[in-house]
Here is the input.
Amino acid sequence: MNEELKQIGERLRGLRDVLDISADEVARLCGISLEQYEKMEAGESELSVANLQKIAKEYGISLDVLLFGEEPKMSTYFLTRKGQGMSIERRKAYKYQSLASGFRGRKADPFIVLVEPKPDDTPLQPNTHSGQEFNMVLEGRMELQIGTKKLVLNEGDSIYFDATQPHCMRALDEKAVRFLAIIF
Here is the structure.
């Protein structure tokens, strides 16, 4: 079991305990089954950053507290040196590196995302979340599906979209893709 996922699950359980919220209520908020949510809390299932963001917004806490167990402290600026951002591996194929984890009250969540390739016949699981999203491919190529539309983004390409639309991506050419994702 991934230790980071287990720790996030423990923080979710702690949040529910403090606020006296049922697991069923949080599962409904995320649009997932109670069983799936309980697996997330146990650290046995992948976590969607979008679902963590929904929980953070609904209950008035920082996404960083759920992801990293730390409250942001900076309010004037926060510098992230190359390769130094706080990171989380949602599952083996996805790694998120936060670029602003120490900035308090931010209006957007910027990440460097690394998606490892997987077989073309692996079904993608669309995700939705409130707000908008910006993606810019830094290395590699990816297929981004928004609703029923499939788009191929090459290195240097970018896209801005309504994140309430179901969306998912995959690395192409049997190579990892690295991109900047900013969630507003």
Observations:
- The chain is about 25% helix and 30% strand.
- The radius of gyration is 16 Å.
